[in-house]
Design goal:
This protein is α/β, with parallel strands linked by helices. The chain contains eleven helices and twelve strands.
Amino acid sequence: MNDAPGNPRAERVLVTGGTGYLAGWCIAALLQRGYRVRTTVRSAAREGVVRDAVSTVTDPGDRLELAVADLTADAGWDAAVAGCEHVLHVASPLGDEHSRDADALIVPARDGALRVLRAATAAGVRRVVMTSAANAASPASYAADGCTDETLWTVDDPALPAYRRSKTLAERAAWDLMAGHDGPTTLATVLPGAVFGPVLSTANLGSVRIVQRLLEGRMPGVPRIGLEVVDVRDVADLHVRAMTAPEAAGERFLGTGEFVWMREMAAALRAGLGADAARVPTRQLPDVAVRLAALVDRSLRPIMPGLGRRNRHSTEKARRLLGWRPRPAADAVVDCARSLVGHGIG
């Protein structure tokens, strides 16, 4: 069903970062609704990757085009937004989230968002929807369990993981820029949780690597970590709803899913995939063992503040204003794993 205003076939939407996991599903969702889509890549050589990925779920025909633009440079953005009615700024710049230099991730995320917004406002784009993260609407400390909504902003703290800081600061910079804008362009932001679900390509797995590690048995057990699991298809749907709904202008929307412990994810994989999940660990790792492992494995450090915590976010606003209804977390996890197996992973 298409709920876009006017004739969607006459509308072009720019999606940034076309080779990304979420961006690919946003492109597919828009094409399935009849829109024309332009997407940015850092190199024209990546066009085949984008087209091949999207073609696994929908025929892009002549309604998909690519533009070369990089979030770390000004060049290309005016041309990328030209003729577009809407922009979905989904891309995240490349960077090492475990780097000791947090600015290596924060600066390109913030400056890249501002480049996209400046180009969009100059072109008179009607709506920009920017992907943030649920961690940008979370308590700075995980010391207590609770449920928060979009009215809370994460307070920036150098002690926080660089990725979380980059999402918070980039979104804050975007809202600050729009506060001084008096043109027709409006902004909405989407703050997803842990995004799983089918992959269109193995080029950029992102958060899906958690499921990959479970399938491959690379973990001796599962840490006592809980995630608000949301399907990538539902996050893409939320972006489109935030793009088209008049009520979404100037609003933040949390797009999290059910809270599940990793042990529950492992059990869902075992039940849903049978022999393909034979190596998935189900043993709960003691917290002390995870803390000791994090001393030598830097990739574990960002999850340490959430060890044993049950912090949650409310999606009541997205449900009430946009009619958003995400699918069950177990379905997202199992569909993700089946997709990885289909791509020869696991």
